[in-house]
Amino acid sequence: MTKSIVPPLSKSPIMVEKPDQRFPQCLLEWRCGQLLVKPSQHVKPKYLPAPENQQHLVDCLKCSPVKLVRIDPRVGEAKLQLWADACEQANKVVYIRIPAACSQTDSLLTKWFKRLVNAIAACLLLVVFSPLMLFLIIYTRLNSKEPLFCREWHLGERGKLFRAFTFRTAKANLNLRQEQTTAYVEWTDDVKSTLLNKWICKSGANSLPQLLNVLRGEMSLFGPRCLDLKNIVGCSYLELKRSNMLPGIAGSWQVETSNLLDLDSPGL
Fold it and tell me: Which of 11, 95, 145, 192 is the right S-S partner for 70, CB 3.0 to 4.6 Å?
């Protein structure tokens, strides 16, 4: 196994780049054609380049024979975002390191049958909810000049990262990583400025585009919670272990979170 530290990427060898304290150093391991990104401990300080040098990281990944990048969630949300975006531009598959499942409960045939059922159900739901989705598209376009859909990184089956689709029902924040776009999450006061936005937030109608993720085999209609990068960093061992399964648009977690939001809501 080969180990190395990501050095600062500067254009001139005589230039000394001051390390950006926002991005701690990383330890890289090449293993069986995979690149593992982990937080380094007790190693000589060499630092990952800051975001303005992300293109250099993309170029390195494009020239690398590595086909898969697996990232330890302990590197932090900012580093996860940096590497996920770079891998996407370099056409590399990116995974999050999660605990292995105890056993394989479903056979390959059963798994494919479930995906077929999910795909058929998703097609039917897209037809049924197409008038509502058309209304949300028009509403979003009239109220914002931002892109129609939000595409944020979420944790998929066996730790694979994918882009989940949601309607953008409010004006995008300057920092897209801090913008909450999934259903049943905390929304700021400007998002809740209208009764319609409140209804969209509570009903989860802005998650209807995730039916496209179901058709792509990235999600299921029912399953464990679909975690974004912020939740990946802070979630427990058990939650990470559940990520060996396909995440769901709906599930028991949805009811629990909805109840919490109702408790936090101001009385009418």
Answer: 95
**Which domain range does residue 62 map to?**
2-96
Opening angle at CA 121, ends 210 and 245, nearest 5: 60
pLDDT digits (tens, 9 = 90+) for 23-54: 556 777 777 677 778 776 655 544 444 445 78
Q: Is residue 162 part of a domain?
A: no
Regarding whether 226 and 122 lie in a shared domain, the answer is yes
Strand-strand pairing, 34-39 and 68-71: parallel
Alpha helices (H) in the chain, listed in sequence order? 54-63, 77-89, 108-128, 130-143, 195-203, 210-215, 229-234, 237-242, 252-264
| CA separation for the pair 82, 192 (Å, rounded) | 30
Residue 105, burial from CB neighbour count under 10 angstroms (0-12, 13-18, 19+): exposed
Q: Do 46 and 116 fall within a single domain?
A: no
Number of Cβ within 10 Å of residue 121's Cβ equals 15
pLDDT value, residue 52: 53
Tell me, yes or no, whether 213 and 120 share the same domain: yes
pLDDT digits (tens, 9 = 90+) for 158-170: 899 999 998 876 5
Tell me the C-alpha distance between 125 and 133, whole Å.
Answer: 11
Place of tokens 């499942």: 101
